[in-house]
């Protein structure tokens, strides 16, 4: 397909690499990347709730905070987020607060997601900013990471 | 009323003081306090989005992160949150992630709130943790701070 689509897969590949690093550190493997309007990667990070002892340290929150710091701006207008798993309500709220332009996610989260499932935050009349959303990018790779992680945890091979 | 209720007003007074400090720094005046099960104040902070250049730095997020750091724990089980304004979707999500026991808020936010308005997150079947919620504590004082702030900003006395 287009060069643009190939770029999008590259960004998701970077998010997948962060998810793998998170898994190696005992975190649920979710990774995210924040990309500036000119295509520059502003931040690439994974879940860090256990490592950082921080309930809010989901991958999306991590890259939003890092990108705000990099740009010295509380708004990420025109920036795009890539994340391996559909964002939860906290992260969807942060995406709206940061005025992110587009959200690309890998695998849907029927139980915990808040973009295309659950409260479907961006479709609510109360939502003050609606990013464009594209789900299913590198879906099977993103899903496999999570499936493997939870299988190993169930088997007691990781805790 | 009971000594307990008086304590709750004291915690909200502390949240109000943080909201006032935020206003003095040019932030929308919202303050929050995180209280441990034994009544110890773990964190008291206000909105810092502009000061910190961080879209996620709402008062509630600030105290949740600080309290997690203080306890070295990603869960704030048994802890209570006091906040001058009804939490937004991001903060309501973070409250559920952190497993906070009770949320006391001052003034309802019909437009931006996500506890008793908007997506009413804790009432959703997809919500995995439901704190007890008590709205209207020191309501008029919490509301007055916000009303004054937005009046001054409309008049160009602050920017």
3D structure, described in words:
The structure is a homodimer of 159-residue chains. Chain A is of the alpha/beta class. The first copy, chain A, contains five helices and five strands. Chain A has helices spanning 3-24, 49-52, 59-71, 89-97, 139-154, and strands at 31-35, 41-46, 80-85, 102-107, 132-135. In chain A, helix 4 links the parallel strand 3 (80-85) and strand 4 (102-107). In chain A, helix 1 (3-24) runs parallel beside helix 5. The model of chain A has no long low-confidence stretch (mean pLDDT 95). Chain A binds chain B through residues 49-50, 52-58, 61, 64-65, 68-69, 71-76, 88-94, 96-99, 111-112, 114, 117-119, 121, 124, 126, 128, and chain B through 49-50, 52-58, 61, 64-65, 68-69, 71-76, 88-94, 96-99, 111-112, 114, 117-119, 121, 124, 126-128.
Secondary structure: helix percent of chain A: 40-55%
In terms of quaternary structure, what is this? Answer: homodimer
Beta fraction of chain A? 15-25%
Biggest sheet statistics of chain A: 5 strands, mixed
Adjacency order of strands in the biggest sheet of chain A? 2-1-3-4-5
Helical run tally of chain A = 5
Would you list the SSEs of chain A in sequence order as H and E? HEEHHEHEEH
Structural class of chain A: alpha/beta
């Amino acid at each position: 397909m287009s060069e643009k689509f190939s770029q999008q897969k590259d960004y998701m590949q970077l998010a997948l690499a962060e998810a793998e690093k998170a898994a190696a550190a005992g975190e649920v493997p979710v990774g995210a990347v924040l990309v500036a309007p000119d295509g520059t990667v502003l931040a690439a990070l994974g879940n860090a709730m256990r490592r950082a002892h921080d309930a809010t340290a989901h991958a999306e929150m991590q890259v939003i905070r890092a990108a705000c710091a990099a740009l010295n701006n509380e708004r990420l207008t025109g920036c795009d987020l890539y994340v391996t798993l559909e964002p939860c309500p906290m992260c969807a709220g942060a995406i709206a607060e940061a005025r992110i332009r587009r959200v690309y996610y890998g695998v849907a989260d029927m139980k915990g997601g808040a973009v295309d499932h659950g409260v479907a935050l961006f479709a609510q009349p109360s939502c003050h900013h609606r990013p464009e959303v594209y789900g299913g990018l590198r879906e099977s790779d993103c899903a496999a990471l999570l499936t493997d992680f939870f299988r190993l945890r169930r088997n007691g091979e990781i805790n």
